[in-house]
Amino acid sequence: MTDPLQWARYHWSRLISGAGRNDGERFCNYSSLLVCGKKPPPMPKLTGKHRVVISRAQCFKEEYEKICGTYMSNRIRTTKYTLLNFVPRNLFEQFHRAANLYFLFLVVLNWVPLVEAFQKEITMLPLVVVLTIIAIKDGLEDYRKYKIDKQINNLITKVYSRKDRKYIERCWKDVTVGDFIRLSCNEIIPADIILLFSTDPDGICHIETSGLDGESNLKQREVVRGYAEQDSEVDPEKFSSRIECESPNNDLNRFRGFLEHPSKERIGLSKENLLLRGCTIRNTEAVVGIVVYAGHETKAMLNNSGPRYKRSKLERRANTDVLWCVLLLISMCFTGALGHGIWLSSYEAVPFFNMPDPDGHNLSPALAGFYMFWTMIILLQVLIPISLYVSIEIVKLGQIYFIQSDIDFYNEKMDSTIQCRALNIAEDLGQIQYLFSDKTGTLTENKMVFRRCSIAGFDYCHEENAKRLESYQEVSSEDEDLTDTPSGSLSSMTKPKAHSCRTVNNRPLKSKSLNHLAGSCFAVGGEDGATDGSLSRQEAFSSPIETDVVPDTGLLAKFSQITPQLFMLPNETDQDLSAEILYIIDFFLALAICNTVVVSSPNQPRQRLRLSSMGRMPITSLEEIKNLFQKLSVRRASFPSLCSGKEPSSGGPNAFVSRLSLFNRSKLAPPTEEDASQLSDWAQGPSETTCLKDQEKSEAAAGSASGSLDSVGQTLASDLHYEAESPDEAALVYAARAYQCTLQSRTPDQVTVDLAALGPLTFQLLHILPFDSVRKRMSVVVRHPLSNKVVVYTKGADSVIMELLSLASADGETLEKQQKIIREKTQRHLDDYARKGLRTLCIAKKVMSDTEYTEWLKNHFLAETSIDNREQLLLESAIRLENKLTLLGATGIEDRLQDGVPEAIEALQKAGIKIWMLTGDKQETAVNIAYACKLLEQGDKIFILNTQNKEACETLMNKTLEELKKGVQRPPNVQSPGTHISQLRAGLIITGKTLEFALQDSLQNQFLELTGLCQAVVCCRATPLQKSEVVKLVRNQLKVMTLAIGDGANDVSMIQVADTGIGISGQEGMQAVMASDFAVSQFKHLTKLLLVHGHWCYTRLSNMILYFFYKNVAYVNLLFWYQFFCGFSGTSMSDYWVLIFFNLLFTSVPPVIYGILEKDVSAGTLMQLPELYKSGQKSEAYLPLTFWITLLDAFYQSLVCFFVPYYTYQGSDIDIFTFGNPLNTAALFIILLHLVIESKTLTWIHMLVIGGSILIYFFFALVFGATCVTCNPPSNPYWIMEEHMMDPMFYLVCVITTCVALLPRFIYRVLQGSLFPSLILRAQHLDKLTLEERNEALKKWKEARRRTSVHSGLTDTKKPGRRRSLGSSCNFSVTAASSCTKQRDIPKFKDTLDINNASGMAMKLVSNSDHPLQNSTQK
Questions:
Q1: Element (H, E) at 619
Q2: Does 310 score more than 50 pLDDT?
Q3: Sign of the four-CA dihedral 448, 454, 459, 464
Q4: Of 1356 and 1109, more confident
């Protein structure tokens, strides 16, 4: 024991004295170890908003010692307590509860002699028991965190030691800012580090971020610019640069800073150079980096907010009723104090029992009444249920356990089940009124399947691929597992089993997984762990239905014409076809290049690919070009190019240059007049509205011949494994690969694509402008290997790309006219894709001169190296680049509905839940999906709001409201048990621009009134911020219970704002899951979660809370009635121990079991009758009236329980405890049998607990009566229960008292079930029938509901003056004038009514059969 003390004393003295340290010692911030809170120590206050990081090299020793003291060490501690502070801190936290403070006040009050009611120890017992139970629970939870923290802190990593001048093994907790760390493959990153070296020849490090955001696909990180070219590992002793970066923050997607060399040269740093704590190194032998954030300052720890704690609506209601109980207690105590004063005043002389003070003075009646008020407070303290809060916590844990144990929530394909991250709002699931849902990945599978494309104005419908998808659907219905394996693929591609490393020379890590590492859920795994993780990663965006694309025969035939002869003999070929093929080449190059896909080729080592010095030499000999291309064709037929990135050994540079020369001759140059006329004729071809059919047999034969030439190459290309950050990117890359435009390798500075007959093309990658929600597009800047020009490839939303297209061209009017025609045709194709429910993207390009690029690069470099306002500067730089684009084409990607979504939405709508779909997709796509999933139905009245300014929006909303109030009115209330009152349905569709106006303060009320008249709302083109604002507006203004569900990072804000947030663990990672209260794997699970478990949780907890109030009031009133017969003296007719244990022990367990196991209606009935959910929405189980009726019943039962024994023993000579014993016994039977009457499900567990409570009571009373001789002098409970057990009168009193007390409630329940049953009671009756009878009764129930619905609808439509606007076949559509012009070519309308107004808008009544958004179906 002396050694640790001496060690601590020695280091503490050195810390205080500031003694020097040698190079081998590590400076530790011991203050971080002494902090006892859950939150980490406060962040150091730095000058400004930046952090300076320097190496621990010798030349920076003094500066390092000065700065390092302000930064945290890498030791983490997520625990709240230590051994020293556990008791005081836990008590401090528990006494934040008002109930605990109240009982502490009573304990202190009972120590005052003048108002003492009980023995001092007895009053403390309830509070001590409750505090002890909670303290044990908190202590066990904290100890579990301590063990995990200890395991994490003691993990080993390699840190550079200046003393040893090599990398040595040290624990994670000993790492500090400025340390150099060397990591190996499959090793977890211990801190946030800047990447300075990678053994990868291209300076790349692959990491897996599943521990942070749940995304299983690999991501690339790059060595800081200037260090990637170094052939040897970075030497920490020679590192003399300094790093300045932003202060620690929790933004995982942002990092700003720069690295400054001694020469004052600055190099910008971004998130691409940062390795975050908790990520895992993959596919890279070793990396070296310098620590910039450590411990609690790392981004992973700053995002570790722990479990989510919310206060449910039911708990807020219970807190209000507790306050009413406090007022009731005060009134009862005031009555007792007033009665005691009046009783004392009734004596003319001083009564003999009134003991005088030591000085001989007697208390006045008023002062005695004042003291009696506080005595009554102590006596009647049980009126406030101290055990209620503990019982609620226990019940909620039990409910969560049964939710997580439900086998119906298990997804075998994903091997996941429901996660309950918020433990205290399960009952809110039974009261949801509004549901806000994302579309992609939430309602759909987020498995993007390439369906169609439009290139240069020609639509390619890919009919063969559509047939393939149908075959997959049939196979999946027969054998779902078959489609999940590579063997089910059309191409039978073999995929690697694991992300392998060439050499794994790191130490074997523990194979045991840590599910709580740095506040995240990533695993510490060795080789086995890496294999398992990689196997799960293979499933991300790589199922056969996504990867196997069958090319369109017409497009493939045109691809087969990409031959050397096409470029060498331009005068003998069709110029129109040549121009079209150039569009096709650029289109598929953009698909393959414009992304951030990581390429893995496990069968071959990665090697650095450099451009040959001969690659830019001009060649003028056409004969030489022909010979080289012939050599190239022979080589590809005999030995196809591999994906290693190496140039061919013979003729490689010359072949490379030959392609350069050919492409320059084939670029779209200013055409002659003859060529211009041909281009114009080609652009105005007949393909603007119809798909290209199968080409001639010769073209098909040419396409198949071309495919056979490269069959071997395609087989080898299929070995490539793509790791995409989104399913859209993966789908486009796989589509390009289907057309022999294969992405072969990607490095930070180049991308290699194998393009049909042209062979491998290596593009110099200059810049990547990633996608963001503001620009809604992404771009890559490359130097084309053939033209040597800077080319910008851009893909993004059509609404954005179309506005960035070049309106004027320097190449002449012909090219401008051609682009205009292509744009119009592509727009029509996009609208057609959207109506079919496809996700659309536009593809464009831009060619820049070196001068333009150099000018842009200067400004972009300044933006990259800035720290303040960096995002805005980068945005402005991207906008300057992405303009004057040339449209290449568009893509249509199918995202199929998840299984069971239409049925789930239909059930939730029948349950009275209003569903809003908030999506960023196009209007047509969103509406089509809304119809497919039954969010909108064919008979709905559809109102479309699409305006460009606030005034038009306001006018349009007013017009829409007027029409809604006229045409969509609620039918008269028809009260019929078991029937559903339907109303004419209306749906609202609003675009993001209009939504921006509607969310403004002046229009919020109109917007909410408008949406309140609609059964479904679809918000399209909505940004993540708009999603959260919509949820917040509805929740705060309408005071309703809201639920938001989503699967991606763009849904996080919406999920966090809602009362209940649900994340879907799908294809887009776990960010939504980590921000949610509950997590499911599929949308259909929401049905059972809400309709069954939500209903059960709300009903159970509501009835349990009411029961607690009932039993406490009923028992406390026995003491209150007794005060009328004892002069309000604060005397109890029961022993104090019995009084305390009655609520604490004898009657505490049955309501807890009731709250966990009660089922008022079976799960099957709740699923088949969704309208039963409405009882929870209306809070029928726990209304204010229900609370007061419960208290009145408690008062009645207490009167019966007191006066029946009182009149029975009136005139006898029994003592006070002999009178109190029948009261206690009868009260126990009444309270427990009251629970039996209220229970709808009585199992053997219920009976066991109730019987056990009765046995415990009698056992305690007998033992206590036999052993307690002088427990409470002068009276004592000695042998009282024993005598009563032999007295028949005792049994008769207990039986009569119990029957009379419970008779009114029993009669009420009988009459309620027979004369005026609610829907819940009728459903309970169904559960008692046999299976055949139950099915027949359910059929009649639904038929009656359907007849009532149809009758109410017909009654409303027959009202005079409304036949025109209320016809069930009409669809009322309101649009702005700008949106109407886009639909001018749709089929004719029936009953069209134009109402023009000052805003230039038109409102049209559209026939349902002709509505353009309802003529397509979704598979």
A1: none
A2: yes
A3: negative
A4: 1109
For 316-339, what is each residue's pLDDT tens digit?
A: 888 889 889 999 999 999 999 999
Q: What is the pLDDT of residue 441?
A: 78
Give the pLDDT of residue 831. 87
1276-1292 in b/e form (b: 16+ CB < 10 A) is: bbbebbeebeeeeebee
Q: Helix 98-110 and helix 365-379: axis angle, to 10°?
A: 130
**H or E element at residue 761:** strand 759-769
Q: Report whether pLDDT(1187) > 90.
A: yes
Residue 449 is classified by DSSP as E
- The phi-psi region of residue 645 (left if phi > 0; otherwise alpha if psi is between -120 and 50; otherwise beta) is left
Distance CA 1162, CA 1092 (A): 8
Residue 89 in this model has a pLDDT that exceeds 60: yes
Q: Which tens digits make up the pLDDT trace of 185-201?
A: 989 999 999 999 998 88
DSSP per-residue string spanning 1052-1097: HHHHHHSSEEEEE-BTTBSHHHHTSSEEESSTTHHHHIIIIIIHHH
Count the residues in the chain: 1419
Residues 563/757, Cβ–Cβ less than 8 Å: yes
Quote the tokens at residue 1392. 């069209």
| Omega within 30 of 0 (cis) for the link into 44 | no
Displacement of CA 8 from its chain's centroid (Å)? 45
Helices 870-881 and 850-864 meet at what angle, rounded to 10?
170
- Residues 6 or more apart in contact with residue 742 via CB below 8 angstroms: 592, 643, 714, 717, 720, 736, 753, 754, 755
Q: Residue 745 and residue 736: Cα distance in Å, rounded?
A: 14
- Best CA proximity match to 756, nearest among 471, 954, 551: 551
Minimum mean pLDDT among 623-632, 667-676, 1103-1112, 1160-1169: which range? 667-676
Nearest to 994, CA basis, from 1006, 984, 986:
1006
**How many whole angstroms separate alpha carbon 668 and alpha carbon 690?**
26
pLDDT digits (tens, 9 = 90+) for 1041-1051: 999 998 877 78
Q: Catalytic residue positions?
A: 438
Find, among 1190, 1152, 1109, 1142, the residue nearest to 322 by Cα: 1109
- 1245 CB-side CA count, 13 A: 12
Higher pLDDT, 507 or 197: 197
Reply yes or no on whether the pLDDT at 1017 is more than 80.
yes
Helix or strand holding residue 702 (H, E): helix 697-709
Q: What is the 3-state secondary structure (H, E, C) of 152-202?
A: HHCCEEEEEECCCCEEEEEEHHHCCCCCEEEEECCCECCCEEEEEEECCCC
Phi and psi at residue 214, to the nearest 5°: 80, 0
User: What's the whole-model pTM score?
Assistant: 0.70
**In this structure, are residues 769 and 272 in contact, taking their beta carbons and an 8 Å threshold?**
no
Question: Rounded to the nearest 5°, which phi and psi values hold at 681?
Answer: -65, -40
- Between 514-523, 889-898, 1124-1133, the lowest mean confidence (pLDDT) is in 514-523
- The mean pLDDT of the chain is 74
- Phi and psi (nearest 5°) for 1058? -70, 160
Residue in the structure block whose two tokens are 């652009």: 683
- Output 894 or 491, whichever has higher pLDDT: 894
